[in-house]
Amino acid sequence: MQYPEKLWFSENYLVRLFTLLEALGGGDEIDKIKAAIEAGDDPLEDLQVEYTRLFINGAPHVVAPPYASVYMDKTINGKFSEKILEFYQAHGYTMTSHGDLPDNLVHQLEFLSFLAEDQNREVEKKFIKHFFLPWFQIFSARVKEEAEHPFYHVIISIIDFFTKEEEEYGVQLNEA
Question: What is the pLDDT, as a whole number, of residue 168?
Answer without folding.
Answer: 52
